[in-house]
Each structure stands twice: as C-alpha cells, then as structure tokens.
Amino acid sequence: MQSLDLMLELGLAKLALIALVALVVIGPERLPRVARTAGMLLGRAQRCLNEIRDEVNREIELKELQQVKTEFEQSARCVDQTLHASLREALMTSSAQRMPAPARRRNWHIRRKAPPLWRKRMTVRHRAYVQSGAARMMRHRPALRRRRIHFF
Predict the structure, then answer these.
(1) 146 Rama class: left (phi>0) / alpha (psi -120 to 50) / beta
(2) Cβ within 8 Å of residue 1, ≥6 positions away
(3) Minimal CB count within 10 Å: which of 11, 35, 107, 151?
(4) Residue 30: which domain range?
(5) CA 55, CA 62: separation in Å to the nearest integer?
(6) Average pLDDT for residues 124-130, to the nearest whole number?
(7) Which GO terms fall under biological process for this protein (predicted)?
(8) Burial degree of 22 (CB within 10 A; 0-12, 13-18, 19+)
C-alpha cells in the first residue's frame, strides 16, 4: 500500500473525488460489488508484489551467500595448499636428517641382538616384592630361634 501511495500520491481529497466519479459512472446499485472486486484485485496485486519482492530479496541473499561461500572455499584451499606445502617441506627435511649413518646402523644391529630389559629383569634376581623390616628378620632368623606366634 505504501508503494502505491508513493507512486500515485493519493490524498483524502483525491480519494473523495474518485469515489464521487465512480458513484456517478457506475451507479449506486453496482458500486459495492465493483468496490469489492477492486479491493480483491488490489489485494492480489499487493500479494504478488510482496512475493516478487521477497523472491528478489532471497535471490540477492542467495547470491551474497554464494559469494561468501566461494570466498571461504578459496581461502580454505589456500590454507590447505600452504599446509600441504609446509608439511611436504618438513617431511623432506626430516627424512634427510633421519637417514642413519653407517655407524648408527651398526649400533642398531648390536642393539637389536641385545636382550630386552624385561628379559634381563627375569634372569637377574631382583626383588619381585618389597618386605617390611620385621618380615625380613623373620625370614633370616635361624629356625631354632623362630617362635610361633599365636594370636588366639
């Protein structure tokens, strides 16, 4: 309605003049039916204009979103490429540093032949559990001097 008012600039005096001309031209019998029809047509026109405006706004927003999406994808691709390039570079430098020298290889074979620590611990008699001082004394006390302790 505002867009029609702005385009036609209808004031109260102009509307009264149009109503008077319509009353004279159409007549009092047909005027209510014509007014209803004109109102329905005006309502349809407003709905069509609103739908068109909404669709145009959606298209504009869609284009803006697509533009933002393409910018985001481009920046993501750029970041991905720089990340892959730096990763490749780091792998190349670390692989060059990781190449073992012949002496290192020889030491690796020696280390490979050495028994693992868990095997050493099994063969060497380490204490498997910790005893209290009293328990150690009881263990090493001669058999004759051992007393049987009865609690009951």
Answers:
(1) beta
(2) 46
(3) 151
(4) 8-59
(5) 10
(6) 63
(7) protein transport by the Tat complex
(8) middle
Q: Are residues 87 and 46 in the same domain?
A: no
Q: Cα separation of 120 and 134, whole Å?
A: 30
What pLDDT is stored for residue 143 in this prediction?
Answer: 65
Q: Are the C-beta atoms of 63 and 18 separated by less than 8 Å? A: no
| Side chain identity at residue 101, one-letter code | A
Same domain assignment for residues 49 and 19: yes
Which element (helix H / strand E) includes 28? none
What angle in degrees, to the nearest 10, is found between the helix axes of 12-26 and 31-98?
130
- The count of domains in the chain is 2
Contact 105, 112 (CB under 8 A): no
| pLDDT higher than 90, residue 46 | yes
The per-residue pLDDT for range 1-28, each reduced to its tens digit, is 455 544 567 788 888 888 888 888 888 8
Give the separation between CA 112 and CA 21, rounded to whole angstroms: 111
The percent of residues above 90 in pLDDT, for the chain, comes to 32
